[in-house]
Fold each of these.
Amino acid sequence: MADSSPSSSTVSRTALLLLRVLTFVFLLIALILIAVANQTNDQTGDKINFSDFYTYRYMISTIIIGFVYNLLQMAFSIFTVVSGNRVLSGDGGYLFDFFGDKMISYLLISGSAAGFGLTVELRRGEPSNSFTDKAHASASLLLIGFLFTAIASTFTSFALPKKPNN
Amino acid sequence: MADSSPSSSTVSRTALLLLRVLTFVFLLIALILIAVANQTNDQTGDKINFSDFYTYRYMISTIIIGFVYNLLQMAFSIFTVVSGNRVLSGDGGYLFDFFGDKMISYLLISGSAAGFGLTVELRRGEPSNSFTDKAHASASLLLIGFLFTAIASTFTSFALPKKPNN
């Protein structure tokens, strides 16, 4: 069996790198939005922010983990382009990409779904406020970041060697 | 390249079927729990159940979709065992399994995370009540159903043909 031609491999590597850069950018904006979201209650003067809710704290954790993972993957990609060699040689690199993308994509959608699940209920019957608007925008951007990672995960699934020990 | 030996293929098909049966059972119990969960407010006499929360309605939708998908996959597996042929021949079956497991596993974890995200906040500062206890148990069972589906999805990723048109 011939290896896939260098050109098709380069195309999918470029597409993967683009997906990771896009995920990185969306997660960065999502992180900033949820971190700065706050609201002062007009009656009581109490301030609320993300740290008052376990669910938003979980969401911010998933964003940070996804952000670090994409940073690492981008560094690996740049190393590969510059040196012409993969950081992890052999099947290790494919397996790392496959399991990394798979787990991070599950993590990102769980953070986004948890954030949406709470935000939708917090908003019901309440006038729109700055805190829930920012939380909603952050969960939406996290969902977009998830979609890019899910597409990357499909690519890295098809790139798997037919057998792990092949 | 020789095909994988029939025995190893049978082993992974049996493992897949087992994972689908387990997912099916956990989703069924999760569905019953969230459907019967209700609570009467002692002061006001108001009854609440899952349909009062958009988030729990979403969770129940993901459970039902996962349930139907696993029913279909189990029917396909039984057909395959009985007739010796796959329902979808060629690569179609592998691609259906791959994308099906991938999408359903994303759906299940999103339902579970949304359910947990809301339940954790509903429970805070409140005495434990029957409604949130059942919702929490349902989200937990849904999470276990997700884990089985994620393992099945890993199997069906490795079973992918090396190239879609191979």
Amino acid sequence: MKTTQLLIPTQKEAPNDAQIISHQLMIRAGLISKLASGLYSYLPMGVRILKKVESIVREEMDKAGSQEVLMPVTQPAELWQESGRWQEYGPELLRFNDRHGREFCMGPTHEEVITHLAAQYIRSYKQLPMSFYQVQTKFRDEIRPRFGVMRSREFIMKDAYSFHLDQASLQQTYDLMHQTYCKIFDRLGLDYRPVLADSGSIGGDASHEFHVLADSGEDEICFSNESDYAANIEKVAFSKQEVTCHAQAVEESVLTKKKTSIEQVSEFLNVAPSQCIKTLIIKTSEGLKALALRGDHELNEIKAHNLFGEFELASDEEIKSLGLKKGFIGVKGLSIELIVDYSASVVCDFVCGANEWDQHLTGANWQGVEFSEADLRNAVAGDDSPDGKGQLIIKRGIEVGHIFQLGDKYSKAMNSNVIGESGKAVTTTMGCYGIGVTRVIAAAIEQNYDDRGIIFPEAIAPFQVVIVPINYNKSTRVKTLADNLYQQCLEAGIEVLLDNRKERAGIMFADSELLGIPHRMVLSDTHADNGNIEYKARNQSDKLEVSYDDALAFIQEKLAE
Amino acid sequence: MKTTQLLIPTQKEAPNDAQIISHQLMIRAGLISKLASGLYSYLPMGVRILKKVESIVREEMDKAGSQEVLMPVTQPAELWQESGRWQEYGPELLRFNDRHGREFCMGPTHEEVITHLAAQYIRSYKQLPMSFYQVQTKFRDEIRPRFGVMRSREFIMKDAYSFHLDQASLQQTYDLMHQTYCKIFDRLGLDYRPVLADSGSIGGDASHEFHVLADSGEDEICFSNESDYAANIEKVAFSKQEVTCHAQAVEESVLTKKKTSIEQVSEFLNVAPSQCIKTLIIKTSEGLKALALRGDHELNEIKAHNLFGEFELASDEEIKSLGLKKGFIGVKGLSIELIVDYSASVVCDFVCGANEWDQHLTGANWQGVEFSEADLRNAVAGDDSPDGKGQLIIKRGIEVGHIFQLGDKYSKAMNSNVIGESGKAVTTTMGCYGIGVTRVIAAAIEQNYDDRGIIFPEAIAPFQVVIVPINYNKSTRVKTLADNLYQQCLEAGIEVLLDNRKERAGIMFADSELLGIPHRMVLSDTHADNGNIEYKARNQSDKLEVSYDDALAFIQEKLAE
């Protein structure tokens, strides 16, 4: 296509509300336009990218034997009441009434609708396993939509759901989807990692997230430096450790006036935070409990939630009611249950609160303290990998996919049963599999940009090649050469953009770089004097002179690489 | 693909709420599934059809130089307030509040959003003309959703919008879109007509509807039997006629006791309805008016609306207040303005009410009656075509497309201006162009079915070819032959379905006919004994024996036809 046939409203400045680079660049490159908070229109270049992502996703889902369906955006409340989520789901679920006053929601996800469909149409075990997917508009009423299409209210998801007779069959499809997702993200040209994840509010038994690695990622993910182990930081599980040290010190109470944080205490006493033990008091449905962790570790709220159910940190009043002194709480002489993190219980000669104002203990040890042990903490860089191979590295990632084993949460609530081999009704077992299609674009940009703009992976670039002729409107020679090369590219099936504007070369270069088109061919009278064109790859800094007659073959070779 | 890999939940009975054949067949063939009133999920076969329609639409829109965009389903109230439609639009516009209480609607159409985009990004006349389209989910909160996807609440539209410097440029794009729509409906394999239409509530100056001809159509459309003239019945315009008769009769008042309708009077007096004149009293913002039409003609409410603005039929009280007698109102001696339809004003020696109870006049004539003339009526079959060529035929149609010249209704209200050649701001002129993508499927079925099911046009059939092997699971020979032919078809790029179920032949035949797959190849031991397969086209009744070895070549020839 030619640039003048397209609306590509590039701009130099990013809007004020664009905090992250993908948001800034998507607006600046004219891929999207903000309609309202969390609502974006995709402009022609944005749609080209979107269609490419969608088409790769569809091809691989089809290959995996998943059947494409299309369910409504609008969902009746009754189904969500059946699953129990009408009440459970927070205000992100946009609820509304139709003109007759009936309740509906705009679907943030489609478990209810697909399970309802399966209950209607899948009746025999012989039909199983079966999986369905759709590429569809979702809505989530985010309280603070931000980061452009990364956390918008309306977005496009590929969501898929599978139905099975048993767990073994689910595991098979789950593994196939894991492979399929790897193929999809490979083809999209992204540097990503599948990681063990928590299955969160969707419920269910096993799940993996697919993260695009990028410094701006919202999530922390942990890898082994020696094995395939990878998990969301929330999900890294630690086991009970052997005590390898010996208590040597003599316990003493020391004055630590106004030193209430681990940082202050460790600095004041010149002891590493890993030699300090901190005690948190939490309030659970069973009353107050004390949790002890190493000073350099953080409580993992998901692990705590799994152990204690709903909980919160105790208030100052509640701490006081136990006779404890905030900032100086220790592990000795507590009147409530004490649970010690596996890494904390193996420390010897540690520092902890003395349970007296302005006093800490030094040289403390666990002897004589009554406690149980548990895995309570987040991983930190350098931890031993839970698979016993190597140490953990922590990187930031952007979640672009998520696969879950749902079990029978929905199929039980919504009566998705089949007649089993024995003639008895069996509740189906489900999996679900999502990819944030619009999010993939933002994540690809977060991972691939420089100070001049986007560097799109080839598979999702809006065009493969841009031809930039200098003085297209003044030099007949340049125009003829450019038109001819453009025609050659079109006939070879190359997605090529001819910049036929009457703009200065600098503006055309800047726009093509901002847009991230992978290959650029420049035509000018100067190059033509030597029978050449100038080639530059978007992700390389050097330029090449290539003979005009070889230009097509050259670019075809580049595209084949 | 193989039938066992797909969910194709065919059923013998149609649901009770399915009144029209396309709704019945789409449910029975397992193309769609009802989720709630006016909300349908597309099952795998339905999605295959949908994608084919979408892809033809996209290809032709791209060829016409229109740029694909994607705007949100959710639209902020502010834009609709700017255009004035927030108040104007009825309860079909689904309005809701987000979690912060801000007002939004689910878009039934996107004039506001696209005009807002154009106002932001199209700034110079040099960028014009420019047109945009999207294939997108719309919502219209129908009071009584019915007819399946024909009048559902959520549906998919291809909507397009064009921006111009002047009317001449709009006309050019409008004509191009007219041609593009013809190409689209040609490729879809539909028998359709573009007809002149009223532009309705969208506003604007000129419009055409594209109707698929089908007896079940909601609209009546008129064609000349001798020319290209075609128009929605509401839009057929008549001109003033010459009087060609002479008043010969003597006017008499006759007793017509309790004969209050044209049918009763014409039968009682043995006079054709076309020789009777009926008088309607309407209430307008300027007071009561009398309208006279021929007894065999109906008032065209749109024409009346264009002449008189909002109006309604006068109440019994209002008729009484004029001293008139309902059922016996005539054209003589009225105290209010009388407007006579062009076809009524040229009748001589007619029958009309006598303005007395139980009395009509016979042999009445217009001499001495004060009136003005206007085009007030709907066309009837046999009317002279307004272009002077031939007579009108009336058929029923289903509206699947609509193109409008919008003028500056939206661009003016929403400040879509460009800097013109002279340096001054010019308001853009707009066109808009819609195709009901999901509606096209229902319309195609209304036009193509028989008592066994759907007869899909080749371009949108879910599969091109179905292979039905008899005893696939028992006869190794049949299985080998079928698998081999299936493989040949796949390798030749044919979209083929292999019915590999353990079902009786009758069920497999019935399902393939219900689904409307254009070409069927049957393999059985009997046919194999002769080295043959049996071929049947869905739209033909005869079966052919074809040599197995020639089967692929044969089917390729059929597909090329």
